[in-house]
Amino acid sequence: MSAALLSLVQNAALLLALAAVYDLATSRQPLGGRPLRQILVGLLTGGVGVAIMLAPVVVEPGVVFDTRSVLLAISGAFLGPLPTVIAMVVTAAFRWSQGGLAAGVGIGVIVSSGLIGGLWGRLRRRALDAGRVSDLYAMGVVVHVVLLGWMLLLPWSSTRRVFATVGLEVMLVHPAATAALGLLLSRRLRRERDADELAESESRYRALFENNHVPMLIVDPQGGTIVDANPAAVAFYGWPRERLRAMLVTEINTLNSAEVQAEMARAQAEARNHFDFRHRRADGSVREVEVASGPILFGHRTLLYSIVKDVTERRLADERLRDTLDQFERAQAVAHLGSWVWHIRENRVEWSPQMFAIFGVDRTAFDGDLAGVIARAIHPDDRAAVERANRRVLEERRPTPMEYRVVRPDGSVRTVRGEAGDLGLGPDGSPERLSGVVLDVTEFRAGEEALRRSVEELERTSSALLSVVEDHQRAEAAVRQSEQDYRLLFDANPNPMWIYDLETLGFLEVNHAAVQHYGYSREEFLAITIEQIRPPEERPRLRAHLRQAPGTIQASGPWLHQRKDGSCLRVEVRSHSLTWRGRPTRLMLAHDVTQREAAREALEESETRLRRAVVEAPFPILLHAEDGTIVQLSRAWCDITGYTREELRTVSEWTGRAYGADAPRVEAGIRALFDLDNRAAEGEFPIRTRSGGIRVWEFSSSPVGRLPDGRRLVISMATDVTERRAAEDEVRRLNAELEERVRARTADLEAANAELEAFSYSVSHDLRAPLRGINGFARVLEEELAQRLDVEGRRLLGIVRSEAVRMGKLIDDLLRFSRLGRQPIHRLPLDTRALVEEVVGECRSRHRDRQVAVDMGDLPAAPGDPALLRQVWVNLLDNAFKYTGREPSPRIAIRGTVEAGTVHYSVADNGIGFDMAHASRLFGVFQRLHPHEEFEGTGVGLALVRRIVGRHGGRVWAEATPGHGATFHFTLPLDPALGTEALT
Amino acid sequence: MNPTAGNAIQVLIVEDNPVDAELAQRALRRRLPCAIEWARDGLEAVARLESGTPLPCLVLLDLKMPRMDGLTLLRRLKTDPRTRALVAVVFTSSREPSDVTEAYGAGANSYLVKPVDGAHFDELVEAAGRYWLELNEPATPGSCS
User: C or N: which end of chain B has fewer Cβ atoms within 10 Å?
Assistant: First the structure.
């Protein structure tokens, strides 16, 4: 390998090394961008150029080779014009400063390399960006062929030397170096582009995640940890975000893993893109949710995103709607009643489920084409009549009930009774919609069919009879035979038949069925007239009918007939005039339709009930279409608002009347309802009634599909909450008032307490001070002037001192009493027996000089404040000890019993007792029944007892006889709830 | 006791009521040979303690006083490093539990309720003086010299 080749390779390696260092050093800053940065990049590139120019291959002095052409070409191709020009200026300046023979040519090389690089970059951008090696190599070849071209400008000897020394080497090394550097830089730039795109997509994802109002979770499928949750999820679940991020999905999902698997399988089978789960929230409530989930690439991990949709309300609404529809369908099925709507403009009919049952048509195959229905399903004989009836409804706007036959696809024939109901008119007054019901009456008609057959038979019979009668006159012999035939026909007929005399109306002949049906024997029939088988109120109608009775066969009815036993039956009759045994008579055949009529009445009633249920719902219901037409309105709507159905033909009419100036806004809200896909609670609106009053209605709406003409339909239901709101407001107001009063009262009490506190504090401090002075200086007097005082003087001083001390005690007791009303009670379990034993011991030691027999019975425990109850026992037992002081054999009995949730304690002594007349004063403050000269004490003890027991929720009383002792009773509740602080 | 303490005061009575102050002084003097000084309220007591003269061994202080009350004085005594070691005995007519708690909380060494009975009063003051001045000499003997 030649030395020049080695040097050039070294120079190229230096360039690549510098480029790599440069790449590393700037890896945190993008190379493109603002002009300042571009200038910096240009200067740096120039710096690299200078660095490689410091280690050239010297062909001869002033003629040097290095890889600056590579650097500048790549700079031109990748870094853009500004950095490249700067780098060119820097390297050119350096080359100029190096001087020498080839300085000009060297600068030319710099310029040409940069320019070719720039041009290449512009023309072959895509290939360069892709880092295609062949392209880069080709650029290197072009740049360096031009470089060698520059050498021709040198003196020929130099040119020759150049070609001989480095010509081949340049063409070997430089294009390869160009390709290598180009690869390095294109990769670097691609990295930057990728980073930009990544950052952009990540921020897009972030914004989508953070700002979505639908709760979203990111879940790690390994382990089921929630990796992240958006603010909507935080709001929905009620956990703080940090808490959610630390939770497992299983803490939210109430299903166990087997159920989750099952649901996933179901979702797949039903080709659903969501799962139905039940999620628990922080407050413990469980919501039905639809969770859409899918993988998301998160850095190097694949996580799952979950979009959570709360569908609890929708499910409930769906269920309610289903229930309502079910009821409606069941009602129709029971009544064999189908309902239909004919959309006249489109000539399309819509059927209720029962219609399909009546017509025996498969619901899925039904196309709603009225002409098709008539052609396929209506009996050929009845088609014209049905079409006629439909036309009449439209022309005369008067619905007519009619019966026709339906041929089911299986060939069976049903008889139905059709009745058109409501004719809906369009805004222009033309009929738009006709609705009605179809009632399957086949079973009723079967009975009638039998009748018809009987009648035909009768008619045949009649003709036979006629001929018989005629023949009778001609051939006597034939008569007998015919009469036998007639008898057979007449008697065997299952329907009642009779012949009556047109003049006398008397029965001339009855058949067996008549006897059975009416309860008269044949003989009885022949003795009465046809009037008598009618209830009296029917007879005038009969007579009127007879007056215009036409001659031949005639059908009439239903009539009301009466049996012998007085019961009635409804019949339809066919009659035929007949000359019988020479008299003008009529042959009658009666068909009992009582049951059919009863069924018809029941049906009518059920129909009415159904209509009432829909239209006369006790709350406002509005069914409206998206073009603003009000399709149906419950009566309650009109009743409450005072507007008539005619005034409320469209939604605009309604909003205009009910909302006044607010109408456009409300109407816009109603229009928006059609875009809903589930039930919406719209909230409360004030409604102006016709009389000008304001009612508050709470609306909720849900879409109910489309009308046959494609218009979407919404049902809006309202609840009149005026009274409820008023009551709630009133309750709120009263509550607020009450709270205010309680607050004020509490503040008063607190102020009073504080005042009392301050008062007793100063009493304790200031009231005792003078007493100390009196007593203290009386003592000083006693000690210092002892010699100068006589016995009386000392006695008087003694009284002064003891009175001062007594006053001090009074003050202390009074303070204790007043504090008792304010200090809280600490109710604790208390061993009463131990407490009493202890107090008795103390009393004994205080009255050591006396022998008192204390008899302690059962003492059940009761909860209470230990310190306070001790005071009670001390006071009661001290009193007992004190007031038995004069008794030669003093006795005290202490008892306790449990009575109805309380413990009743008593302390009985055989001391001096007291007069019950004063019992009421006993427990008052400073009330004494005995002079304190005889029994010392301040008169506060029992008052304290009453206050303590009272604050525990108990009761105190006493009974006594003067000279025969006293018994003090008190009770304490066992249930602490009974003895509340409020009982002070 | 240090025999050189002849005219150095050992007890400072802080009391706004002259009657109580005199009774207390009498009770102490009668049986304990000690020097006593009287301050009418907290401020006077502070002035006395900061005057630079030697500190007393025992401060007998009332709680309820004009200008500066006993609790404030007590807190001040017990937070100032110079006077923190002084024995402070609260001598008051208040039995309020809150007063007792607060006084001990502020660093009182004893809390005594003034009895109405003169004999008890004398005994109590004497006992307190004897306990703190003779039996339980304070840990800062320098202040008593």
Answer: C
- CA–CA gap between residue A632 and residue A625 (Å, rounded): 10
What is the identity of the amino acid at A909? D
CA distance from start to end of chain B: 9
Residue A607 located in a structural domain: no
Strand partners, A289: A277, A310
pLDDT tens digits for A751-778?
777 777 777 767 667 777 888 888 888 8
Per the structure block, which two tokens stand in for B116?
Answer: 């109405």
pTM over the 0.95 mark: no
Residue A766's CB is within 10 A of a number of other CB atoms, namely 12
- Distance between CA atoms of A430 and A424, rounded to whole angstroms? 9
In CATH, which superfamily holds the domain spanning B9-144? Response regulator (3.40.50.2300)
C-alpha to C-alpha distance for A697 and A685, rounded to whole angstroms: 5
Angle between helices A663-672 and A651-659 (to 10 degrees): 140
Instruction: Tell how strand A853-856 and strand A891-899 pair up.
Output: parallel
Chain B nearest-CA distance from A757, in A, is 10
Amino acid at site A947: R
Query: Cα–chain-centroid distance for residue B25?
Result: 11
| Cα Rg of chain A (Å, integer) | 58
**ipTM of predicted assembly, 2 dp:** 0.74
B98 and A CB contact within 8 Å? no
* A653 and A795 fall within a common domain: no
Q: What is the DSSP string of A844-904?
A: HHHTTT---EEEE-------B-HHHHHHHHHHHHHHHHHHTTT-SS-EEEEEEEEETTEEE
Whether the link from the prior residue into A61 is cis, omega within 30° of 0, is no
Let me know whether A738 and A818 are in one domain. Answer: yes
Question: Within 10 A of A49 (CB to CB), how many other CB atoms are there?
Answer: 28
Site from B64, B116, B122 to mutate, A interface, most A CB atoms within 10 angstroms: B116
Strands A694-706 and A630-633: unpaired
* Total of domains in chain A: 7
pLDDT at A613 over 60: no
Nearest CA distance, B117 vs chain A (angstrom)? 6
